[in-house]
Amino acid sequence: MDTITHGMITRVFAKAIVPEPRGRDLVVLATVCSVLPDIDIFFGAGDPLASLQNHRGITHSLLGAVLLGFPIAALAYHRVPRALFMWWRGAESRVIVGNPHGREDASLGFWAFYLASVLGIGSHIFFDLVTSYGTMILQPFSDRRFSLDLWFIIDPYVWLILSVPWLLRRAFGRRAWRAGWAYRVGAMLLVGYVGLAAWVQVAALRRLQAWVRAEGISAVTIGAIPVAFSPLHRKGIVMTPDRVYDIPVRVLRADFGPIAVHPSPFRTDDPFILQAWATPEGKRYRWFARFPLAMRHEEGGRQRVILYDLRFEGRLEDLDAVGRAIARALLRRWPALMERKRQALEVVFDTRGRIEQIRFVR
């Protein structure tokens, strides 16, 4: 999920729980902390695969939330950020560093600030977990990525829900609307949307499992991945030892969409694909990919191998009517949008079969 949406979601929940103006500092602190975990995008700068290994790592882990929240809470409690802000504005004398009694409510103790910090970071972790990218919540003890596969990584329906508190305050005004109720409505809608996505996910997985049993397929992995602009649809993925099935699942209909079948990404009949997986970069990518695929093209005697993950591949058949309409509008502007590989590794071999170039394609 994008960083700005994380901050907006946490702000809605914080303002729904913490009364104003007593807890204004806590709301601000939780909101700021909810965007901080994404600082890991700067880890390993210059390494094209660093984002795969580092993003959603230690700053997105449970231990990281506990540890990172402490110094942030200490700085906020002693009013260091506000002092720096006022100094930047040329009014540094208005705030005294280390004087926590100058807040709106001096009764707020340090542990209230620490709890707000941890919950803000925890909000970021949870709403990354609901996407399919994968979050290493057990770092540094384990590099396993966990995903709930509930929301697409960028979901415009979430943005619509986040606009509800603002619309309610505009419609009813501050005096006519009880303090915090607009945000409570928004928070309840977000919880309801998570619940809807969980129901869709369970229904999609059950449909896929029933299809596997009916077809007599020996499945290694079964997944249901959320797709863009289509909250009631899923990209079903069934991996077997020799092939991969891409199955559009429409939970409100009895049938599936057109099924696409791909060969195994680790087939032994293609030495170029095997060599691409065997490179250090290929091994790192294999660790990241949940549903790996591989394809090879020959271009003027040179071989071009692309290792990619079916999670990041979209088809019009995966989408509902709204999603297809939006996708077609985007395709008119960018015709190759659906064919473009994302989060993929490209390995180019020269005419002698030696590796010429390896690059990561975002």
What order do the helices and strands come in, and which of them pair?
Blueprint: H1 3-17, H2 24-33, H3 50-54, H4 62-77, H5 80-88, H6 110-129, H7 156-162, H8 164-176, H9 181-215, E1 221-227, E2 230-239, E3 243-250, E4 260-263, H10 271-278, H11 280-288, E5 292-299, E6 302-309, H12 321-333, E7 344-349, E8 355-361
Antiparallel strand pairs: 1-2, 2-3, 3-4, 5-6, 6-7, 7-8
Helix pairs in contact: 1-2, 1-6, 1-9, 2-6, 4-6, 8-9
Describe what is shown at a glance.
By secondary structure, the chain is α+β, with helices and mostly antiparallel strands.
Tally of strands: 8
Classify the beta-strand content into a percent band.
Answer: 15-25%
Helix count from the secondary structure assignment: 12
What spatial form do the alpha-carbon principal axes imply? globular
Mean pLDDT: 88
Could you say which structural class the secondary elements and strand pairing correspond to? alpha+beta
**What is the end-to-end distance?**
16 Å
Element pattern in H and E:
HHHHHHHHHEEEEHHEEHEE
Profile the largest sheet: 4 strands, antiparallel
What strand line-up does the widest sheet have? 1-2-3-4
- Give helix % range: 40-55%
Enumerate the spans where pLDDT stays under 50 for 5 or more consecutive residues: none
Backbone CA Rg: 24 Å
Could you explain how this protein is built, in words?
The chain has 362 residues and is an alpha+beta fold. Among the domains are: 146 residues, no CATH class; 98 residues, no CATH class. It has twelve helices and eight strands. The strands form two sheets. It has a four-stranded antiparallel sheet with strand order 1-2-3-4.
